[in-house]
Write a structure and sequence with these properties.
about 290 residues, three-stranded antiparallel β-sheet, globular
Length: about 290
């Protein structure tokens, strides 16, 4: 049985599902598969009734008049999307969901969310959707005919360990919906965390009593050597799920290793772990 992010962090379905691409020589069944995948991703795994589907953009995609990227754009700009994730949700909740739906990751930091808030203020809702679909990141990652997918737990999609932990506040498991069944409802999950640049516990959703949840407002501290300037220390559990480098005597070859890392060294430790072939299985504050 696999031991790593897929089995430990509740992302097995994302990890085991290949990205969906629409090839020029495609059957009607393949186009329909793409359409369903776009609805599922862009609408946050929510159920879409037949009457809610977008027949005109669907027909354009089937006739090769638009690309998958343009279909994603039209779903994002639709009243269906706007009513579910914009008009009825606070601004910063809407923005963090846009990152999940169109780029498959959590926002990097507060500045990134502020940039999108400014777009909403100055250019409006449709320009906000365009800012994701027309971004260099979207085009380099998904191109014209690849359906966006959840990727915020992958090394290439994150720039810091804090961002990695925030991803699990947006996606609690492969079956989770962006709104329905989420205890946070329509309230922003990351706003205060982004303001403080605070990492959150990342633990296995299958562990007894475990849950993806925000930390308390003040973390307990560890005193003494190595506690860090702000006194916050995190327990980082690493697995030997796969090796990214050739290393016959890797320190990550055992199934588990645990490190106690000061807050101000989390990003540096994240880079070191991935460089040496380790996979982070959990991040929790020291009690």
């Amino acid at each position: 049985m696999a031991f790593g992010p897929a089995s430990r962090l509740g992302v097995a379905l994302f990890e085991d599902t290949d990205p969906i691409d629409l090839w020029p020589s495609r059957s009607n069944e393949e186009v329909e598969t793409v359409i369903r995948a776009v609805y599922k991703q862009v609408l946050g795994n929510a159920y879409v009734m037949e009457s809610e589907r977008l027949p005109v953009p669907e027909s354009q995609l089937k006739r090769s008049e638009i690309s998958v990227r343009e279909f994603v754009r039209q779903v994002g700009k639709s009243e269906l999307y706007r009513s579910r994730f914009f008009d009825s949700a606070p601004r910063y909740r809407a923005i963090e969901l846009n990152f999940r739906h169109f780029l498959g990751r959590a926002p990097l930091d507060l500045e990134e969310t502020r940039t999108h808030s400014t777009i909403l203020d100055t250019k409006g809702f449709k320009a906000e959707i365009d800012s994701y679909v027309d971004s260099d990141e979207y085009q380099e990652t998904f191109g014209e005919n690849l359906v966006p997918y959840i990727r915020g737990y992958k090394t290439e999609a994150i720039q810091s360990l804090v961002q990695f932990t925030h991803f699990f506040q947006l996606v609690r498991g492969s079956s989770s919906s962006s709104l329905k069944g989420d205890l946070a409802g329509k309230q922003a999950k990351l706003n205060s965390l982004l303001i403080q640049s605070t990492p959150t516990p990342v633990v296995s959703p299958t562990s007894k009593g475990a849950a993806f949840r925000n930390p308390t407002s003040t973390l307990r501290t560890r005193q003494g050597v190595g506690s860090g300037d702000d006194g916050k220390v995190y327990r980082v559990e690493v697995t030997g799920y796969k090796a990214n480098v050739v290393n016959n005597i890797s320190k990550f070859r055992r199934s588990n290793q645990v490190f106690f890392v000061p807050y101000n060294q989390l990003s540096q430790e994240d880079q070191r772990i991935h460089k040496q072939g380790g996979v982070i299985a959990s991040i929790t504050p020291v009690n």
